[in-house]
Amino acid sequence: MEKILITGSNGLLGQKLVYKLKDKLKNNLIATARGENRLVNKEGYIYESLDITNLKNVESIFEKHMPEVVINTAAMTNVDACETDKENCWKLNVNAVKNQIDTLIKLKTINKNYNPHFIHLSTDFIFDGTKGPLDEEAIPNPLSYYAESKLAAEKLVQQSNLNWAIARTVLVYGIVDNMSRSNIVLWVKQNLEQGKTINVVDDQFRTPTLAEDLADGCILIAEKKAKGIYNISGKDFYSILELAHIVADYYKLDKNLIKPSKSADIKQPAKRPPITGFIIDKAIKELGYNPHSFVEGIQLLEKQISNINP
User: Fold this and answer.
1) What is the Rg, in whole angstroms, of the alpha carbon atoms belonging to the chain?
2) What would the pLDDT profile of 29-43 be if each residue is shown by its tens digit?
């Protein structure tokens, strides 16, 4: 495999990609994130501190390594924070993508033999949630500032003359080193274990995605030099309430602590699309993508948690 550079390597997907690729690629893997490397295992890849909102910084790192593949996982993904801090949201989700595209095009212009593949991560939130599950042809209609920024980035990618692919995903869950944010599975498990009542919406529907599966999807796109848009998510379509019940059943926790609620009753700065979820037939057929079921995903997560806390 070719030399791959990952942005956002401290994040959930970034870490999974580094751990999956480091032995395959040896030192042909460049992990980048802002600040220091938060991964526990620091062997088998090169780490560079990179601020993708800084064009000069992007140029110097990309020029130094000349990656054949860039997987852009870095983004501001806290939907409510994006709504209240629009400037930073746009900087990280749009300008930073432009910096990477412009740099790769510039390097390509200088070196005619250089033909990089840019793989960009996007989201189901670019849709308005009036129907689902959706295929790759669905028409975006963003409801939040986060969604607007992600759609703007997609357009930049699509209009570039790079070899590009966009991997859209949904409600990613998993665990990583030095985790700063929770996810649906851990949130339900921890609250119910503590005997706390939780309000869970029954009017939002998703196809939850195991972080390992998303990483596999990105790697398949890179290996097959696939171009275009791919839906890379889980295969099971559930309401968020159903998800919470499955987690409770799996851990034999009290489902009576889960109170159904409506999105309108939960006060959040940003609007969420009610129904999304993805049809993943294209990724299955063209890439050989084969995600876990949601229950298999919980089992894998449980194995990882017990390895951390034996």
Assistant:
1) 19
2) 999 999 999 999 999
